Amino acid sequence: MFSLEVTLDYQDAEAAAAFWQEALGYERRYARPPYVVIGPPAGAPGATVVLQQVPQSPEGTRAHLDLRVDDPEATVARLEALGASVVGTVDEGWTGWTVMADPWGTPLCVCPAR
After folding, report:
1. In 28, 42, 53, 59, which residue has its Cα 20 to 30 A from 20's Cα atom?
2. Are residues 26 and 74 in the same domain?
3. What angle do CA 25, 95, 100 make, to 5 degrees?
4. Cβ proximity of 97 and 89 under 8 Å
């Protein structure tokens, strides 16, 4: 058995945690500067996400999330309403996805469920 955590660096970890809680339907688990930890509701599967506050934005991308969803178009619209933006799309013929950036520029991909 194992657990998975994804850590993302932000200048404002609280604001980033609020975005990701709404985007993923997660609950706040722990907050103690410089960390805010969110995860799926009790009993639900999913990775834990750690938002780490750093003094300045890191150079380049430290990590990103792939969101596998049943309705990619609705998810893209919902994330845009939360402040994310569409960067582009990828079409590999047999599958495709939307590349987005959260309000702080961190990339994420909205992909169809497997």
Report:
1. 59
2. no
3. 45
4. yes
